[in-house]
Design goal:
This protein is mainly alpha-helical. It is built from 14 helices and 8 strands. The strands form 4 sheets. It has a two-stranded antiparallel ribbon. Strands 3-6 form a two-stranded antiparallel ribbon. A hairpin with a 2-residue loop joins strand 1 and strand 2 (45-46). Helix 1 (9-25) runs antiparallel to helix 2, helix 9 (202-216) packs across helix 12 and helix 9 (202-216) crosses helix 14 (272-279). The protein is globular and about 65 Å long.
Length: 280
Protein backbone atom coordinates (compact mmCIF):
# COMPACT_ATOMS: atom_id res chain seq x y z
CA UNK A 1 0.00 0.00 0.00
CA UNK A 2 1.27 3.47 -0.83
CA UNK A 3 0.45 6.94 0.47
CA UNK A 4 -1.23 9.08 -2.18
CA UNK A 5 -0.09 12.67 -1.99
CA UNK A 6 -3.05 14.67 -3.26
CA UNK A 7 -1.09 17.59 -4.69
CA UNK A 8 -2.60 18.05 -8.15
CA UNK A 9 -5.57 20.20 -7.16
CA UNK A 10 -4.80 22.97 -9.67
CA UNK A 11 -4.90 20.64 -12.68
CA UNK A 12 -7.87 18.69 -11.33
CA UNK A 13 -9.96 21.70 -10.40
CA UNK A 14 -9.37 23.31 -13.78
CA UNK A 15 -11.23 20.33 -15.27
CA UNK A 16 -13.86 20.11 -12.53
CA UNK A 17 -14.55 23.86 -12.50
CA UNK A 18 -15.30 23.83 -16.22
CA UNK A 19 -17.43 20.73 -15.84
CA UNK A 20 -19.47 22.13 -12.93
CA UNK A 21 -19.98 25.41 -14.80
CA UNK A 22 -21.35 23.42 -17.73
CA UNK A 23 -23.50 21.29 -15.40
CA UNK A 24 -24.97 24.37 -13.75
CA UNK A 25 -25.72 26.10 -17.06
CA UNK A 26 -27.38 22.94 -18.39
CA UNK A 27 -29.38 22.31 -15.21
CA UNK A 28 -27.76 18.96 -14.60
CA UNK A 29 -29.63 17.01 -11.93
CA UNK A 30 -28.01 15.71 -8.78
CA UNK A 31 -28.63 12.10 -9.80
CA UNK A 32 -26.69 12.63 -13.05
CA UNK A 33 -23.85 14.77 -11.74
CA UNK A 34 -21.26 11.98 -11.59
CA UNK A 35 -22.36 9.99 -14.64
CA UNK A 36 -22.28 13.14 -16.80
CA UNK A 37 -18.60 13.56 -15.87
CA UNK A 38 -17.93 10.61 -18.16
CA UNK A 39 -20.06 12.04 -20.96
CA UNK A 40 -19.15 15.74 -21.11
CA UNK A 41 -16.01 16.34 -23.17
CA UNK A 42 -13.32 18.99 -23.04
CA UNK A 43 -11.74 18.66 -26.45
CA UNK A 44 -11.31 15.01 -27.47
CA UNK A 45 -11.71 13.40 -24.07
CA UNK A 46 -14.36 13.22 -21.38
CA UNK A 47 -13.80 15.09 -18.12
CA UNK A 48 -13.64 11.75 -16.32
CA UNK A 49 -10.88 10.43 -18.59
CA UNK A 50 -8.93 13.68 -18.26
CA UNK A 51 -9.05 13.36 -14.48
CA UNK A 52 -8.05 9.69 -14.53
CA UNK A 53 -5.18 9.88 -17.02
CA UNK A 54 -3.86 13.41 -16.42
CA UNK A 55 -4.30 13.70 -12.66
CA UNK A 56 -5.11 10.55 -10.68
CA UNK A 57 -2.86 7.97 -12.33
CA UNK A 58 0.28 10.17 -12.32
CA UNK A 59 -0.06 10.89 -8.60
CA UNK A 60 -0.61 7.17 -7.92
CA UNK A 61 2.32 6.06 -10.08
CA UNK A 62 -0.19 4.28 -12.34
CA UNK A 63 -1.30 1.82 -9.68
CA UNK A 64 -4.64 0.97 -8.11
CA UNK A 65 -5.11 2.83 -4.86
CA UNK A 66 -5.90 -0.44 -3.03
CA UNK A 67 -4.47 -3.62 -4.59
CA UNK A 68 -1.47 -1.89 -6.27
CA UNK A 69 -2.19 -3.40 -9.67
CA UNK A 70 -0.48 -1.50 -12.47
CA UNK A 71 -3.17 0.40 -14.37
CA UNK A 72 -2.51 0.76 -18.07
CA UNK A 73 -4.26 0.62 -21.44
CA UNK A 74 -6.44 -2.45 -21.59
CA UNK A 75 -7.06 -2.52 -17.83
CA UNK A 76 -10.44 -1.24 -16.68
CA UNK A 77 -10.13 1.79 -14.39
CA UNK A 78 -12.76 3.19 -12.04
CA UNK A 79 -12.89 6.29 -9.86
CA UNK A 80 -13.09 5.49 -6.18
CA UNK A 81 -15.04 7.97 -4.04
CA UNK A 82 -13.06 8.02 -0.80
CA UNK A 83 -16.11 9.33 1.01
CA UNK A 84 -19.10 7.46 -0.46
CA UNK A 85 -20.96 9.71 -2.87
CA UNK A 86 -24.22 8.40 -1.41
CA UNK A 87 -23.62 10.10 1.96
CA UNK A 88 -26.42 12.52 2.73
CA UNK A 89 -25.98 13.31 6.43
CA UNK A 90 -23.55 15.89 7.74
CA UNK A 91 -22.63 13.73 10.73
CA UNK A 92 -21.45 10.98 8.36
CA UNK A 93 -19.36 13.50 6.43
CA UNK A 94 -17.84 14.84 9.63
CA UNK A 95 -16.74 11.30 10.48
CA UNK A 96 -14.21 11.67 7.66
CA UNK A 97 -13.35 15.32 8.34
CA UNK A 98 -12.41 14.49 11.92
CA UNK A 99 -9.50 12.36 10.71
CA UNK A 100 -7.56 15.47 9.63
CA UNK A 101 -6.33 13.90 6.40
CA UNK A 102 -5.13 15.96 3.45
CA UNK A 103 -8.06 17.41 1.50
CA UNK A 104 -10.81 15.89 3.61
CA UNK A 105 -12.18 19.07 5.15
CA UNK A 106 -15.19 21.35 4.87
CA UNK A 107 -13.35 24.03 2.89
CA UNK A 108 -12.90 21.55 0.00
CA UNK A 109 -15.80 19.09 0.22
CA UNK A 110 -19.52 19.29 0.84
CA UNK A 111 -22.59 17.09 0.59
CA UNK A 112 -23.87 16.98 -2.97
CA UNK A 113 -27.34 17.95 -1.73
CA UNK A 114 -25.86 21.06 -0.07
CA UNK A 115 -24.08 21.98 -3.30
CA UNK A 116 -27.37 22.04 -5.19
CA UNK A 117 -29.24 23.85 -2.41
CA UNK A 118 -26.48 26.50 -2.39
CA UNK A 119 -27.12 27.37 -6.06
CA UNK A 120 -24.19 25.23 -7.25
CA UNK A 121 -21.53 27.55 -5.84
CA UNK A 122 -18.04 26.06 -5.48
CA UNK A 123 -15.71 25.53 -3.67
CA UNK A 124 -16.40 23.51 -1.62
CA UNK A 125 -16.93 20.77 -4.18
CA UNK A 126 -19.74 18.20 -4.07
CA UNK A 127 -18.63 14.73 -3.01
CA UNK A 128 -19.69 13.24 -6.33
CA UNK A 129 -17.19 15.27 -8.35
CA UNK A 130 -14.46 16.46 -5.98
CA UNK A 131 -10.75 15.92 -6.67
CA UNK A 132 -9.95 15.38 -2.99
CA UNK A 133 -12.59 12.66 -2.90
CA UNK A 134 -11.21 10.83 -5.96
CA UNK A 135 -8.70 8.01 -6.37
CA UNK A 136 -8.10 5.65 -9.28
CA UNK A 137 -8.97 2.00 -8.70
CA UNK A 138 -8.96 -1.18 -10.75
CA UNK A 139 -12.32 -2.42 -12.03
CA UNK A 140 -12.42 -5.82 -10.32
CA UNK A 141 -15.72 -6.85 -8.76
CA UNK A 142 -13.87 -9.12 -6.30
CA UNK A 143 -11.89 -6.41 -4.53
CA UNK A 144 -11.15 -2.67 -4.36
CA UNK A 145 -13.65 0.03 -5.39
CA UNK A 146 -16.43 -2.12 -6.86
CA UNK A 147 -16.21 -4.61 -4.00
CA UNK A 148 -16.33 -1.89 -1.33
CA UNK A 149 -19.39 -0.19 -2.85
CA UNK A 150 -20.68 2.34 -0.29
CA UNK A 151 -19.22 0.90 2.90
CA UNK A 152 -17.55 3.26 5.35
CA UNK A 153 -13.81 2.64 5.41
CA UNK A 154 -10.73 4.21 6.87
CA UNK A 155 -9.08 6.20 4.01
CA UNK A 156 -5.85 4.33 4.55
CA UNK A 157 -4.00 5.45 1.39
CA UNK A 158 -4.25 9.08 2.58
CA UNK A 159 -2.26 8.22 5.71
CA UNK A 160 1.43 9.20 5.26
CA UNK A 161 2.84 6.13 7.09
CA UNK A 162 0.62 3.54 5.45
CA UNK A 163 3.48 1.91 3.50
CA UNK A 164 5.04 0.73 6.76
CA UNK A 165 1.72 -0.08 8.47
CA UNK A 166 0.08 -2.41 5.97
CA UNK A 167 2.22 -5.55 5.91
CA UNK A 168 2.21 -8.54 3.58
CA UNK A 169 3.37 -12.05 4.39
CA UNK A 170 5.79 -13.22 1.66
CA UNK A 171 4.63 -16.86 1.89
CA UNK A 172 0.87 -16.72 2.38
CA UNK A 173 0.38 -13.32 0.74
CA UNK A 174 -1.88 -12.30 3.63
CA UNK A 175 -2.21 -8.57 4.22
CA UNK A 176 -2.54 -7.08 7.71
CA UNK A 177 -3.06 -3.59 9.10
CA UNK A 178 -2.61 -3.72 12.85
CA UNK A 179 -3.20 0.03 13.24
CA UNK A 180 -6.64 -0.14 11.63
CA UNK A 181 -8.81 2.03 13.95
CA UNK A 182 -11.57 -0.57 13.63
CA UNK A 183 -9.26 -3.14 15.27
CA UNK A 184 -8.71 -0.83 18.23
CA UNK A 185 -12.39 -0.95 19.22
CA UNK A 186 -12.97 -4.36 20.82
CA UNK A 187 -16.73 -3.76 20.72
CA UNK A 188 -16.88 -2.91 17.04
CA UNK A 189 -18.90 -5.21 14.80
CA UNK A 190 -17.42 -3.69 11.64
CA UNK A 191 -15.19 -5.72 9.38
CA UNK A 192 -11.54 -4.63 9.24
CA UNK A 193 -10.76 -2.15 6.46
CA UNK A 194 -8.73 -4.63 4.38
CA UNK A 195 -11.68 -7.02 4.39
CA UNK A 196 -14.13 -4.30 3.34
CA UNK A 197 -12.13 -3.73 0.17
CA UNK A 198 -11.37 -7.41 -0.40
CA UNK A 199 -7.60 -7.14 -0.15
CA UNK A 200 -7.30 -10.65 1.24
CA UNK A 201 -9.12 -12.09 -1.74
CA UNK A 202 -7.47 -15.46 -2.56
CA UNK A 203 -6.33 -14.35 -6.01
CA UNK A 204 -4.62 -11.25 -4.60
CA UNK A 205 -2.94 -13.33 -1.90
CA UNK A 206 -1.57 -15.74 -4.50
CA UNK A 207 -0.24 -12.88 -6.61
CA UNK A 208 1.57 -11.48 -3.56
CA UNK A 209 2.82 -14.95 -2.56
CA UNK A 210 4.15 -15.40 -6.11
CA UNK A 211 6.25 -12.23 -5.87
CA UNK A 212 7.30 -13.17 -2.33
CA UNK A 213 8.47 -16.53 -3.67
CA UNK A 214 10.56 -14.86 -6.39
CA UNK A 215 12.08 -12.47 -3.86
CA UNK A 216 12.93 -15.18 -1.31
CA UNK A 217 14.48 -17.47 -3.93
CA UNK A 218 16.26 -14.68 -5.81
CA UNK A 219 14.43 -15.42 -9.07
CA UNK A 220 13.74 -12.76 -11.67
CA UNK A 221 10.48 -12.53 -13.57
CA UNK A 222 12.34 -13.05 -16.84
CA UNK A 223 13.66 -16.36 -15.47
CA UNK A 224 10.10 -17.40 -14.68
CA UNK A 225 8.85 -16.51 -18.14
CA UNK A 226 11.38 -18.81 -19.73
CA UNK A 227 10.82 -21.79 -17.38
CA UNK A 228 8.02 -24.29 -16.87
CA UNK A 229 5.02 -22.59 -15.28
CA UNK A 230 3.64 -25.78 -13.75
CA UNK A 231 6.91 -26.57 -11.94
CA UNK A 232 7.12 -23.11 -10.42
CA UNK A 233 3.49 -23.24 -9.27
CA UNK A 234 4.09 -26.68 -7.75
CA UNK A 235 7.05 -25.27 -5.79
CA UNK A 236 4.97 -22.23 -4.76
CA UNK A 237 2.20 -24.51 -3.47
CA UNK A 238 4.79 -26.53 -1.55
CA UNK A 239 6.02 -23.35 0.16
CA UNK A 240 2.51 -22.34 1.13
CA UNK A 241 1.58 -25.81 2.44
CA UNK A 242 4.76 -25.96 4.51
CA UNK A 243 3.75 -22.61 6.02
CA UNK A 244 0.12 -23.66 6.58
CA UNK A 245 -1.13 -27.17 5.76
CA UNK A 246 -4.74 -26.04 6.19
CA UNK A 247 -4.88 -24.06 2.97
CA UNK A 248 -8.52 -23.50 2.02
CA UNK A 249 -10.10 -24.45 -1.28
CA UNK A 250 -10.21 -20.84 -2.51
CA UNK A 251 -6.42 -20.57 -2.26
CA UNK A 252 -5.96 -23.87 -4.07
CA UNK A 253 -8.32 -22.70 -6.81
CA UNK A 254 -6.35 -19.44 -7.11
CA UNK A 255 -3.11 -21.41 -7.64
CA UNK A 256 -4.74 -23.68 -10.21
CA UNK A 257 -6.09 -20.60 -12.00
CA UNK A 258 -2.52 -19.40 -12.56
CA UNK A 259 -2.23 -22.17 -15.13
CA UNK A 260 -4.66 -20.12 -17.21
CA UNK A 261 -3.18 -17.37 -19.34
CA UNK A 262 -5.77 -14.84 -18.18
CA UNK A 263 -4.50 -15.02 -14.58
CA UNK A 264 -0.85 -15.71 -15.41
CA UNK A 265 -0.57 -12.67 -17.67
CA UNK A 266 -1.99 -10.49 -14.92
CA UNK A 267 0.79 -11.36 -12.47
CA UNK A 268 3.20 -8.81 -13.91
CA UNK A 269 0.74 -6.02 -13.11
CA UNK A 270 1.42 -6.79 -9.43
CA UNK A 271 5.22 -6.47 -9.56
CA UNK A 272 4.92 -3.76 -6.89
CA UNK A 273 5.13 -6.54 -4.34
CA UNK A 274 8.59 -7.66 -5.41
CA UNK A 275 9.75 -4.13 -4.61
CA UNK A 276 7.79 -4.12 -1.37
CA UNK A 277 9.27 -7.41 -0.13
CA UNK A 278 12.74 -6.18 -1.13
CA UNK A 279 12.44 -3.11 1.07
CA UNK A 280 10.68 -4.49 4.16
Amino acid sequence: MEFINKSNSAAANDIIDRYLTWAKNHHCEESNLYSSLGEHKLGERSCKDLLIYNVLLPEQHNRCCYCMRRLHDGVGITIEHIIPQSISRLEDLNRYFEKGLNGLDQSKLCLTTDFFSNNCVFPPYPLKVAYYNFAASCHSSDHCNNYRQNQHIEPLFLMPNINSEVLYDPISGEGTWHNDPINQDVNSLELPTLEKVGLNNSTLKIYRAFWGYLYRHNISYDDVASNNRAILLYDLLGDILEYDNNVDSDMLTAIINLQKDLYWNRIRDYDYFFQWFSSH
